[in-house]
Amino acid sequence: MAAYLLVPLHTSEWIWTLATRRGPVQVIAGSEQDARKEASLRFGLPSRGGQPGCADDPWLHSKWTYVHPIDELHRDIPVLE
């Protein structure tokens, strides 16, 4: 497992309206895609049955969320495991 930092971009845009978080988050996951899915499940657009939200969820797209692996966790940013 690796640690990823996810940083929302352009948070004043309409696509972020229903997201419950618009700030950075760290995710422990097996891949960038898995990290995005975890953020989507926790903070993204409403979902059904434990699946990530709709395809337009900003946590799932590089246009709206920058993601990169990190070597160590930052104590001031929430962590999803």
How are the elements arranged and paired?
Elements: E1 2-8, E2 25-29, H1 32-43, E3 65-70, E4 79-80
Parallel strand pairs: 2-4
Antiparallel strand pairs: 1-2, 1-3
Give the tags.
single chain, alpha+beta, 1 helix, 4 strands
**Largest sheet geometry:** 4 strands, mixed
Q: Looking at the chains present, what oligomeric state does this protein adopt?
A: single chain
Overall spatial form: globular
Number of domains: 1
> What is the strand arrangement across the widest sheet?
3-1-2-4
Distance between the termini: 10 Å
Weakly predicted, low-confidence segments: none
Fraction of residues in helices? Answer: 10-25%
Question: What proportion strand?
Answer: 15-25%
| Strand segment tally | 4
Gyration radius (Cα, Å) is: 12 Å
**Helix/strand/pairing class, anyone?**
alpha+beta
Mean of pLDDT: 91
SS field, number of helical segments: 1
**What's the SSE pattern?**
EEHEE
Give an overview of the whole structure.
This protein is of the alpha+beta class and 81 residues long. The chain has one domain. 15% of the residues lie in helices and 25% in strands. The chain is built from one helix and four strands; from the N terminus they run ββαββ. It has one helix at residues 32-43, and strands spanning 2-8, 25-29, 65-70, 79-80. It has a four-stranded mixed beta sheet, covered by helices on one side. The longest helix is centred in the middle third of the chain and has 12 residues, at 32-43. The chain is globular and about 30 Å long. The protein starts with a strand and ends with a strand.
